[in-house]
Amino acid sequence: MEQNPEQMIHRMSDVLASQVAAGEVVERPASVVKELMENSIDAGADMIRVEIIRGGISLIKVTDNGCGMSRADALMCLERHATSKLLSFEDLSCIEKLGFRGEALPSISSVAELSITTRREQDVEGVVIRCRGGEMMPPAGAGCAPGTEICVSNLFFNTPVRRKFLKSNETEAGHIEHEIKLHALAYPQLRFVYVRDGQLVFDWPATSDLRQRIADFAGRELAAGLLRIKPVLGPGVHVSGYLMPLSEARRNRRMQYVFLNTRPVEDKVVARAIRDGYGGFPTGLHPALFLYLEVEPALVDVNVHPAKKEVRFLRPSDITTTIIDAISATLAEHARGGDDSLSPTQPLPTVAPAKVAPVLPKPGSKPEVVNEPSSFPITEPQNILPVLDPILELKPVLEPVQKELKLPEQQPVQEIKPHPFAEPQPTSALKPVMTDEVMAAATEPTTEPYSRANKFRYIGVCAGRYLLFENSEGLVLLSPRAARERILFERLLSSHERPLHSQRLLQSVMLDLDARDVGVALEVSSQLEKAGFRISHFGQRTLRVDGVPMMLSLPRVDEFLHELIRTFSSGEQRLKRNRNPFEPYALQLAKQYAAREDLRPWLQAPLPLLNELLNCEIPYCTPAGKPTMVPISLNELTRKFQAL
Description:
Distance between the termini: 81 Å
Number of helices: 18
Helix content: 25-40%
Oligomer: single chain
């Protein structure tokens, strides 16, 4: 039918509609892996193998030994809204499968080159179907093992705008690894194999012991301290899983793994219930745990988010109460010495499970699945009290440059303190870079005339947090923390042109990162190097830190960098106006360090701090726009006192 030239509304083509729908389903290569793995799980596979090349952009191959598809089903699965998991409207209110919308494969095929090779066990011959940019090729016969193999290559080849917004290969591979690990935690009874750029990353055998899978994921040392959640049955909900020791509390929720009917989810109701189950938690810290919820399908809606990560509960109060009861009961049991039924008695095995080379199943056979019931008993600690230990105390790598100081009594204005902004001298825990340039920077004079601050008279400290000054116009309140943030920011910003000096550590610090954070850390490593850090890649998920900036006193280098890298990973470092490419890094470094810095040395040296602040290009606000100083004029004071 010809379209009226005055008609503005028209119907999209099927290919264009699929590409638009792909924006909800396929955000990045990890989204493709998630959808394909969920199809494999729904197909009854007990072995899933994922292979990627160049972060999944060049190739994603997912192989399973599930039920496979007939020729007719293989053709139908590439049609939009084609599914084997919903037959009627009533089924929508009781969803028990991971994938049910029928949008994944057609959406993926519309933005990539896709091939499906599949065979049912009862069929003599399999079928292979190829599709490029939504255009399907004629099917052909294929000799293959029972199951399905799906290859996705050249992702976003026909949508360059989306491809432009992908991150580095390292970052995208990290997100893929995270998705695989999430599903491996949800399905410990399945074998998961992950191969990246031709190298085996892990091969986790199937197990009936969830602790074995957690040990594969988080390490044997952490798994040995797991606290098994006392199972609690509520109205239509069952709670189980494991708590991590309270000393493993984190500054974000990245170590909170929640599974609803074996589906990884992120839900605010559940997160709030977890915190309440611990009886509250210090601000900025979050408990770590592996929580498994079994909820009657009719009581939860999993169809409220395109990626199915968010859910909606019919009776959220029942979910909250059951989670709180389970966590609080577990902590109470261990506080009283533990319940024998909750504590395995056999120790950890001394030898870690062997990682075997991946072997694809031969035609007509199933791959061997290692199933070791109770092969990973873990001795749980018996004397763990439910107290809030904010963070595990780490042995300082660097000795603090500033010693603990007591607040002084009122000092005369004329007395001049040593300059607190001189580059710190090397401590016993540091080995400085022995060059004339660095030594000159480390030994610069510690006093200078306070030309900018000589118009101010120091009065005292307010509430132990603010400095009070007087000048000819009235009172000035100064925030030492905000002032330090501005000073550090401008110093770091200048390092884009002239890198800051670094101090080498006598002993390198190893950072074990989340798979999603490794790529981000490598992306920003050159910027961190300009700021004085010396960081290198040391293994798959490990970074080695050999040096830190001389201008920063960092007694806990690992914790500082962990938090910094997570900030970059979450995208919080971006600015609306980014004149200098180093500005986001300088902003976060200054903000994070100033937030941790001890204020007492600066409260004891007010004039040098004020003078250094006034020497900044923009002294009156932090990089984020918050004030560093608040003036109160004499006229304003007069008005307030004469108001009555």
